[in-house]
TrEMBL record, chain A:
InterPro entries in UniProt: ABC_transp_permease, BCAA_transport_permease
Regions crossing the membrane: 12-32, 52-79, 91-114, 140-157, 186-211, 223-248, 255-274
Keywords carried by this UniProt record: Amino-acid transport, Cell membrane, Membrane, Transmembrane, Transmembrane helix, Transport
Annotated compartments: Cell membrane
Name under which the protein is recorded: Branched-chain amino acid ABC transporter permease
Family: Belongs to the binding-protein-dependent transport system permease family. LivHM subfamily.
Organism per entry: Ancylobacter oerskovii
Organismal lineage: Bacteria, Pseudomonadati, Pseudomonadota, Alphaproteobacteria, Hyphomicrobiales
Record carries keyword Lipid metabolism: no
PANTHER family attached to this UniProt entry: AMINO ACID ABC TRANSPORTER PERMEASE PROTEIN, BRANCHED-CHAIN AMINO ACID TRANSPORT SYSTEM PERMEASE PROTEIN LIVH
Topology in membrane: Multi-pass membrane protein
UniProtKB/TrEMBL annotation, chain B:
Signal sequence residues: 1-38
Matching PROSITE patterns: TAT
Cross-referenced CDD domains: PBP1_ABC_ligand_binding-like (cd06338)
Keywords per UniProt: Amino-acid transport, Signal, Transport
Domain (Leucine-binding protein) ranges: 41-391
InterPro entries (alphabetical): BCAA_transport, Leu-bd, Peripla_BP_I, TAT_signal
Source species of the chain: Ancylobacter oerskovii
Family per record: Belongs to the leucine-binding protein family.
Gene3D superfamilies per record: 3.40.50.2300
Protein name: Amino acid ABC transporter substrate-binding protein
UniProtKB/TrEMBL annotation, chain C:
Keyword Transmembrane helix included in the entry's annotation: yes
Localisation per UniProt entry: Cell membrane
Bilayer disposition of the protein: Multi-pass membrane protein
Lineage top rank: taxon: Bacteria
UniProt protein name: Branched-chain amino acid ABC transporter permease
Native source species: Ancylobacter oerskovii
Annotated transmembrane regions: 84-104, 152-173, 204-224, 244-267, 279-302
InterPro entries from the UniProt entry: ABC_transp_permease (IPR001851), LivM-like (IPR043428)
Record has Membrane as a keyword: yes
Length: 287, 413, 311
């Protein structure tokens, strides 16, 4: 039984990280109806900024959290405002292709400047034991941060004017425009928030996973799965999707071997797509 | 809003089409007009992974090949019979995509008229480029492919400077059993990719053959970003030896998670992790105690022919070029690959493809990287390969005896 | 829209240019021509589901990769090469029909994501079923023993044949009730169902058509390179590249996907040959510019001009 409690703990911690990874992607998809292929690269960019600050100037990742968040928000806002807004209402193929093209550029720039060498912020905070279960402290911190950030986003979406405007645009664009909401601006802000969440996920990840441009596609794939499993465009959806995916991968890895872990995640996603396309949480209000 | 944009665009399109057409024509002209210049230089073609997943390895090859060419040309070139010819290295980025690798190999042979190919990093892509070289009967030197499966498919123009990776497993099991006689069980976790997979299967077989019990053996697929499940199962199996194979990013993650989850064993081996400085740099203290095998280490002391007569010469040049970095086996093996070509040219004194191929097949030289002599499949002959361990964040050599500078220690708790 | 004589003329010229490369150019150009034909066939295939029907499918790499593997496994079992290709085509076609019946219930973004997931699942299954597929080691195929020129010419003509078949199929569909129905679905699926179009069957037909030529091209490609492995056969990059090509030429038209594929492959050639470190970024810039300045594809320019539009 000890092994199962460990595996459940692994799955939940991984799942919280998945949720953190996917929540920005989910928001952009839900509100803008854009599949943002840049998302994986945004995460890695956040990770690199953290690593260079830590390695070059000894700045603690916690300090970098707001800095990276602000920088990526600015980047995302500018990209949406100047580039993506021009085709934001075009069919999915167009917007997906556009962000794919942008991702090729960002990927190339990062590989050129940073090279593909895997880097890691070596905090190595050790582990705590809870009975038979070992919990790595930096993952616990990562998990906590992931939850806090996700909940903060939830609070912003529910409680602030901007958040309510975003939800309004999501529900009915033309009605929102009639109410005097400047949708293009809301789109830019939403995309900025999406990039911000990706960036801070990168900060959290930098001390847990090796940072390299090689994994941008893997992160993007996880974001897909989490969004579909949990339900699109909602913060609780990303949270549920992440946790479920983390648990499923963890259990499948134990039962069927690591070779089947990722397959199990994708099969789960396809099953949910077909039986419950709105995801486990459903389309309540796109909080 | 969309309509308006469209019309505005339509007005300015003709010029743009013109540009596009011109670009396409230029493309055609560029690919078609490959002038068959009189042969003045030795041309070596190299499809390289300068971007994509293998970019780091590609850049390593690029670095040492350029060093080699520079050094050769500074000395007047390579001897072909009694005259000297300069060497030209032609590289393209194949973006870590196999299809493009074969396409670029074809381009190098047809357009750039190279006489030799250097194969890119890794067994899979070496196989692909070797297949193209075979079709055109262009000798291809592979400096980073060690899986025997690459060399057993009767590619008569493919030669590899690494020795078979089978040599890495048996010797390692033997040595660890000798030093740590309590070693009874082993857990193996390997990446499902040509080289890491063959190492994982190889070590399990070698361990069983020498009386160890394989307590856990699984592969993880490309694209795995978490090893917690596998490591928890390994922890439950309580092995005396944990063996993980994969690329640097996989191994850094695996080691970090082992620490996190309290998974450990007296011996922990990661292949080829510690052979790369990126691994030890990425892990810092966590790298301590990890053992590995490699094909070459700069502490070895070989002497031989070529632009770098001794390992020390190469080491010095390399440090000067990289401002103090240590070369790893990729650097060593690839830098020596050029000497195979130099030797073949010197002996045949001609540029005849068939003669060169035969000359390469009968290569028997000493270099700073060690002896190079190809077996019947075109692979460098087995030799005693270094077993290494990270101690105090530096690489120590445990074997072979003549270059050994440390004893095997148990993993720090 | 009905394809005008211009489209047919462009196609004929394009195919003739490709087919005649062995007469005047070296093997590398012939190879590039074969790659153009291959991507032309892939893009033309995609056009059935993506162009006519308007479903953003990203399954191309799944069909191509499965074609590679079925063909390779058959050939290794001693089936003659061309027969192996045929088996691959039929099996993958049947697979696509079954799969289509399931995932075509999804729409828009959901369908897009589902179709990408198919590629990943196929890759992972092929990769872990090592007793049949060799897993991460990949599979070796018997190399053809002819000289390099003959091999190259042979595969150029094979790829051209697949391309031509896919174009003929497009022309037939374009004129048939199926093509009409697919375009109705593109316009408004509910309305199409209301006027009596069996949308499910039509969509499955389009999805299957989008698979068979990819499978044939994949099987032929496997015989050509002589070695396949899971990561190379199921590439996400390919699955996105092919729709981009079709859009570049003009999705939903007869000649567009092929022209787009030709333009894209040639552009890639230029960048790869000339910009060692920055080729990917430059290709990205080209894609971004295309989305902005050429949303209707290359053909839309030609059509406007010939119609005497603003010039």
């Amino acid at each position: 039984m000890a092994i199962y409690s460990q595996i459940l703990a692994n799955g939940l911690m991984l799942g919280a990280l998945y949720a953190c990874l996917a929540v920005g992607f989910s928001l952009v998809w839900g509100v803008l109806n854009v599949i943002n292929m840049l998302h994986g690269s945004f995460i890695i960019l956040g990770g690199y900024l953290t690593w260079f600050a830590w390695h070059g100037w000894g700045i603690h990742p916690i300090v970098m959290l707001p800095v990276v968040g602000a920088l990526l928000f600015a980047l995302g806002f500018a990209l949406q405002k100047l580039v993506i807004n021009r085709v934001v209402s075009a069919p999915v193929l167009t917007t997906l292709t556009l962000t794919f093209g942008l991702d090729m550029i960002l990927y190339n720039v990062m590989t050129y400047w940073f090279t593909a060498t895997p880097r890691r912020v070596q905090l190595d905070l050790g582990a705590v034991s809870l009975g038979p279960v070992t919990l790595p402290v930096d993952r616990l911190v990562g998990t906590a941060l992931a939850l806090v950030l996700t909940l903060a986003l939830y609070a912003v979406m529910r409680g602030s004017n901007i958040g309510r405007a975003i939800v309004a645009v999501r529900m009915d664009r033309s009605a929102a425009e009639l109410m005097g909401i400047r949708t293009e601006r809301i789109y830019a802000i939403t995309f900025g928030i999406g990039a911000l969440m990706a960036g801070v996920a990168g900060v959290v990840f930098a001390s847990v996973f090796p940072i390299t441009t090689n994994v941008t596609g893997t992160y993007l794939g996880k974001a897909f799965v989490v969004c579909v499993v949990g339900g699109l465009g909602s913060v609780p959806g990303a949270l549920v999707g992440g946790l479920v995916l983390g648990l499923v991968e963890s259990l499948a890895g134990h039962w069927f071997g690591p070779q089947q872990a990722i397959t199990a995640g994708f099969v789960l996603m396809l099953a949910i797509l077909l039986t419950r396309p709105t995801g486990l949480v459903g389309v309540r209000g796109y909080e | 809003m969309f309509e308006r944009d469209l019309r505005r665009r339509a007005a300015s399109t003709p010029r743009r089409t013109g540009l596009l057409a011109a670009a396409l024509l230029a493309a055609l002209a560029g690919t078609a007009a490959a002038p068959a210049l009189a042969q003045e230089t030795i041309k070596i073609g190299a499809p390289l992974a300068l971007t994509g997943g293998l970019a780091d390895e590609g850049h390593k090859q690029d670095l040492v090949w350029k060093m080699w060419v520079e050094k050769v040309n500074a000395a007047g070139g390579l001897a072909v019979g009694d005259k000297k010819m300069k060497v030209e290295l032609i590289e393209y980025d194949y973006q870590s995509e196999g299809q493009r690798a074969s396409q670029l190999a074809e381009k190098l042979i047809n357009d750039d008229k190279v006489q030799f190919l250097f194969a890119p990093f890794g067994s899979g892509h070496t196989k692909i480029v070797g297949g193209v070289g075979e079709r055109y009967q262009v000798p291809t030197i592979a400096c980073v492919a060690s899986s025997e499966s690459v060399f057993d498919q009767s590619l008569k123009h493919l030669f590899g400077t690494l020795s078979p990776n089978g040599g890495m497993t048996t010797a390692m099991v033997k040595m660890f059993k000798e030093k740590f006689p309590d070693t009874k069980t082993i857990a193996v976790l390997g990446r499902d990719d040509v080289f890491p997979k063959s190492m994982a299967e190889g070590i399990a077989k070698a361990a069983e053959a020498q009386g160890l019990t394989v307590a856990y053996k699984e592969l993880y697929p490309v694209g795995t970003m978490d090893h917690a499940a596998a490591l928890s199962s390994i922890k439950a199996a309580k092995p005396d030896w944990i063996y993980v194979s994969g690329y640097t990013q996989d191994l850094i993650l695996a080691r970090k998670q082992m620490q996190d989850l309290g998974v450990t064993a007296p011996i922990v081996t990661m292949v080829t992790g510690p052979s790369y400085k990126e691994f030890t740099e990425g892990l810092g203290k966590l790298a301590d105690g990890i053992t590995s095998s490699s094909w070459w280490h700069h502490a070895t002391n070989y002497t031989g022919q070529g632009v770098w007569p001794t390992t020390a010469d190469f080491y010095k040049d390399f440090q000067a070029k990289t401002k103090g970095a240590d070369p790893d086996y990729v650097h060593g093996s690839c830098a020596a690959a050029g000497e195979v070509i130099a030797e073949a040219l010197k002996r045949t004194g001609s540029l005849d493809k068939a003669k060169l191929r035969d000359a390469i097949a009968s290569t028997d030289i000493q270099t700073f990287y060690g002896p190079i002599k190809f077996g019947p499949t075109g692979m460098n002959l087995p030799r005693e390969l270094p077993i290494i361990q990270v101690q105090d964040e530096t690489i120590k050599v445990l074997a072979p005896a003549d270059i050994k500078n440390a004893e095997l220690i148990a993993m720090p708790k | 829209m009905r394809s005008g004589p211009l489209a047919y003329a462009l196609l004929a010229v394009g195919i003739l240019v490709l087919a005649s490369t062995p007469l005047y150019a070296d093997n590398y150009v012939v190879r590039t021509a074969a790659i153009v034909a291959m991507y032309g066939a892939l893009a033309t295939s995609w056009n059935f589901i993506g162009g006519f029907t308007g479903y953003p499918s990203f399954s191309t790499a799944a069909f191509f990769g499965l074609g590679c593997y079925v063909g390779a496994i058959c050939q290794r079992a001693g089936v003659p090469m061309v027969l192996a290709w045929l088996i691959a085509t039929l099996m993958v076609g049947a697979f696509a029909a079954l799969l289509g019946a399931i995932i075509l219930r999804l729409k828009g973004h959901y369908f897009a994501i589902g179709s990408i997931a198919v590629v990943e699942v196929c890759r992972l299954i092929v990769s872990s079923w090592s007793s049949l597929t060799g897993g991460g080691d990949g599979l070796n195929l018997p190399l053809l023993t002819w000289g390099p020129e003959q091999v190259m010419r042979f595969f150029l003509f094979v790829m051209l044949a697949i391309l031509i078949l896919s174009l003929i199929a497009t022309a037939l569909v374009d004129r048939s009730r199926l093509g009409f129905g697919l375009r109705c679905i593109h316009q408004n699926e509910d309305a199409a169902a209301m006027v009596g179009i069996d949308t499910t069957r039509y969509k499955v037909a389009a999805y299957t058509l989008s698979a068979v030529f990819c499978a044939a091209a994949g099987a032929a490609y496997a015989s050509w390179t002589g070695y396949i492995d899971p990561t190379e056969s199921f590439q996400i990059l390919m699955t996105v590249k092919v729709p981009v090509m079709a859009m570049l030429g003009g999705a939903g038209t007869l000649a567009g996907p092929f022209l787009g594929a030709a333009a894209f492959v040639l552009l890639e050639e230029v960048f790869w040959a000339n910009f060692l470190d920055w080729n990917r970024a430059i290709l990205g810039v080209v894609i971004v510019l295309l989305v902005f300045f050429l949303p209707g594809g290359l053909l839309s320019l030609a059509r406007k001009r010939s119609a005497g539009g603003p010039a």
